[in-house]
Design a protein that fits this description.
Strand order of the largest sheet: 1-3-2
Shape: elongated
Structural class: alpha+beta
Order of helices and strands: HEHEE
Number of domains: 1
Number of strands: 3
Distance between the termini: 54 Å
Number of helices: 2
Strand content: 5-15%
Length: about 100
């Protein structure tokens, strides 16, 4: 592959601009509030994030919901542990 002198240029690092990777997290304020109110010995059962265990996309859906829950925990300033019921409902406790 041939290159010409117009293919690249050397610039100052100060002039660089970067775009953010990925997409913006969609964490509901209600979830953050729910996790904020958690105390040791209590659990938050999130029925709206239930995943059918028999679904071919169950693993992907669980990973997506887990990431959202972890982000909500981060925004709430709490470290969370996520467990899944046999019926596919996430259950959040403090780590």
């Amino acid at each position: 592959m041939a290159t010409s002198k117009d293919d690249f240029e050397v610039v100052s690092e100060d002039s660089l601009q970067f775009s953010k990777r990925g997409r913006k997290s969609q964490v509901s304020p209600e979830l953050v509030k729910g996790i904020s109110s958690l105390t040791k010995g209590k659990a938050l059962v999130i029925k709206s994030m239930a995943v059918s265990p028999n679904s071919p996309k169950a693993k992907t859906e669980k990973a997506k919901h887990s990431a959202t829950i972890r982000q909500a925990g981060k925004q709430a300033g709490k470290k969370v542990r996520i467990g899944w019921s046999p019926s596919g409902i996430p259950q959040v406790t403090l780590a």
